[in-house]
Design a protein that fits this description.
The chain is an alpha+beta fold. Helices cover 43% and strands 20% of the residues. It has 15 helices and 13 strands. The structure holds adenosine-5'-diphosphate, (3R)-3-hydroxy-3-methyl-5-(phosphonooxy)pentanoic acid and magnesium ion. (3R)-3-hydroxy-3-methyl-5-(phosphonooxy)pentanoic acid (PMV) binds next to helix 7 and helix 8. The site of (3R)-3-hydroxy-3-methyl-5-(phosphonooxy)pentanoic acid has 16 residues, from helix 7 and helix 8.
Length: 425
Amino acid sequence: MPVTSPFLVSAPGKVILFGEHSAVYCKPAIAAALSLRTYLLVTPSQDPDVVALEFPDIKFSHKWNRNDLPWNVLNNVVGEKPVLTEELVPELVSALANNLDSIASSLHYSAAYTFLYLYMSLCHKNTQGVTISVRSTLPIGAGLGSSASIAVCIATALALLGEHISPALVRNEKLTVETQEAAFIENWSFMGEKCIHGTPSGIDNAVATHGGAVMFQKTNSSLPSVRTTMRNFPSLKLILTNTTQPRRTADLVAGVSRLNNEFPKTTTAILNAMESLTHEAYNLMIKPFDKEAKDTLRKLVCINHGLLVAIGVSHPKLEKVKMLADEMAIGQTKLTGAGGGGCAITLLNDEVSEENIEKLTLLYKEEGFETYETTLGGKGVGVLIPEEDRAESEIFSVKQFLEFSSRDQIEQTVGVTNLHGWRYW
Ligand SMILES: Nc1ncnc2c1ncn2[C@@H]1O[C@H](COP(=O)(O)OP(=O)(O)O)[C@@H](O)[C@H]1O
Ligand SMILES: C[C@@](O)(CCOP(=O)(O)O)CC(=O)O
Ligand SMILES: [Mg+2]
């Protein structure tokens, strides 16, 4: 698709309520889309041969000449059309290393690698050069699925550029993503997640694509994963706290894999316990959610955290989040996402006062932690273009997009519900 005007893709982050890590071992997990999102702006490049990335959230920008990319390798091994493979194509992975060898930081490398892998897979040599600029209201590397959210945005933008999905179908009138288009985006963003952390379960990119809340289970055969939409997902009163301790999902997933190799029987028993508690939580959440159900759900949150501690993915700062909440007897806390730092959720007791919530958030602030006000279960991926009668300059330029100084400014300017002058494609 020739890009004559800019377009904007956005996708949400997620909170895993039950089953992180066990999800990688084909156990079910429950997650919901977050109101924090990643926004990706596609603009035509001035030089049609140049593909450029502007990722200010991780202080990274880079350019490639599209003629320098290993198209021949790809065509020899895969052919001209995108072919979904179970694993990343090793020949492409090794050929791309030459185009990435000047990038030293692992944070930058994984973002650039994900982009190039998907670009090579979904575009072709003659696809017009574009600049891909990304801003996120999600903290990066904090357990809220920023990797999946950016992978979904990149896969969607490149699938549009490569004409594998049709703009008209990305959103229908009810603003729901058409099934076939969504499946294409989900599958390719899963390959993106593989570039970022090796052996993802697929739950994060499924939620970032479809939105809402799901119980998700990867299969260990070539069968597709099972995604069960939880339509009546109860509204949960929770505090989301970021320890701001940096960590990489790839390292934590690799740590659990080492533990599994060293103590296979014990690790399997823990993963099985996570499986049964996720089922119990699911059964509670699909029925009328009364006081008793809420109490039980909090007990399951507590057990799930204990099991995550047992497989070595907590961190002293996450324990601090839990301890402060426990001391105030305000609710039950568990880490969310890969752990090792990043975020925790505290599922609050019903009767908790606003005053106590404020007191706890203040205590967290004193520890250097951040708390977020968010809602769960929102929209999945979406694509927006400027309304016909709007010139690019009337809306916002790449420069402005890159210079938004705060989460609030991003949300207020390009947030799905706030964006004026743009319409769903
Ligand atoms: N806004 C962003 N800009 C650039 N890269 C991003 C952005 N968001 C996520 N990423 C990529 O995702 C990686 C973090 O993924 P991960 O370790 O899985 O943490 P999480 O998904 O919990 O945030 C980063 O190293 C980076 O490659
Ligand atoms: C640890 C895991 O279960 C969740 C990782 O989430 P995040 O990248 O920390 O947001 C891995 C996965 O399911 O792919
Ligand atoms: Mg991730």
